[in-house]
Structures are given as structure tokens and as C-alpha cells.
């Protein structure tokens, strides 16, 4: 009896624990938040999908200051293995109500860990931010996904049909 009461509690606790996710599918997530880089306070958000990953660099000015004019932002990526050199992509400015936001589309040739370096440069100086991200599949498996996702439903339908046929055969045999 005591075990019967503990089992649901243990199941609830096990399901409530945070588990690492294998791949990311969805909106960008932060890799750096409110980091000082030269005359900027910067946050970097990313969705590092294999194929084309996206980076958003959000800039704010420190308290009591304005953002430097003519700010340029670039995002450099390099496989953490060091197999290839760093490739740099210029980020484009996007309109926002407050601060500044820059966007860069970055191709990731393969999965795994990648070094990311964000360079900021403006009329009052610049700075550099560094992090690592893991490039993961974008979560879609193309047209074959339809077949993969249909299999469980087709199997349940087959079992239901098989059970219905057996019931009918038994009801015919009884008279």
C-alpha cells in the first residue's frame, strides 16, 4: 500500500526534472546576455540549425549614454575542432523602438560545436564577444516524416481492424 502511494510521487518528480534536449526546434535562444563590449551592452540570440543558422545581436547603451553612431556588427563562426578557419558574416541592422538589433544568417555545414565571435565596431570604439554553440538539425525530416509519423496510427488501425474481424468471426460461430 505504501509503495502504491509513492509511485505516482516518484513519477511526478522524475517527469518534473529538467532533461537535456537533443536538438533545438523553435525560436532563437540566448547564448550571451547583457555583456559589456566596448561602449555597448550586448546580448546574442541564436538558432544554430544545420544549413542556415540565425543570429540576433541586440545592443543597448550603458546607463546615461547613447549608442555610438555607425555601428557595424559581424558574426564569425569556426568549427570547434579547428578543421576550418573562421568565416565572418556581416550582420544587417533591423528597425527597433529602443537600442539596436542586428541580424546575420550563417551557414553551418555540419553538426557539432562551433566557436562564435561577434565583433562590434562604432565611432566610439568596439568590442568582441565569444561563445560556443552546437549546430543541430532543424527538426524536420522532410517528406519521409509523413511516413514515419503515420506508422503508429496505421499500426493501431490495423490492430483495431484485426480485432473487429475476430469479434465478427466469433459472433458468426456462436449460433
Number of helices: 2
What is the SS-derived class? alpha+beta
What's the end-to-end separation, in Å? 46 Å
- Going across the major beta sheet, what is the strand order? 1-2-3-7-6
Biggest sheet features: 5 strands, antiparallel
Output mean pLDDT: 85
Strand element count: 9
What percent strand?
A: 35-45%
Could you list the spans in which at least 5 consecutive residues all have pLDDT below 50? 20-24
Judging from the principal axes of the Cα atoms, what is the shape? elongated
Rg calculated over all Cα atoms:
26 Å
Helix content bin: 25-40%
* N-to-C SSE string, H for helix and E for strand: HEEEEEEEEEH
Description:
By secondary structure, the protein is α+β, with helices and mostly antiparallel strands. It has two helices and nine strands; from the N terminus they run H-E-E-E-E-E-E-E-E-E-H. Strand 2 and strand 3 form a beta hairpin.
Summarize the structure.
The chain has 175 residues and is of the alpha+beta class. It has two helices and nine strands, in the order αβββββββββα.
Relevant terms:
five-stranded antiparallel sheet; alpha+beta; four-stranded antiparallel sheet; single chain; 175 residues
What order do the helices and strands come in, and which of them pair?
Elements: H1 2-16, E1 29-37, E2 40-47, E3 51-60, E4 72-79, E5 87-90, E6 92-94, E7 100-108, E8 112-122, E9 125-135, H2 144-173
Antiparallel strand pairs: 1-2, 2-3, 3-7, 4-5, 4-8, 6-7, 8-9
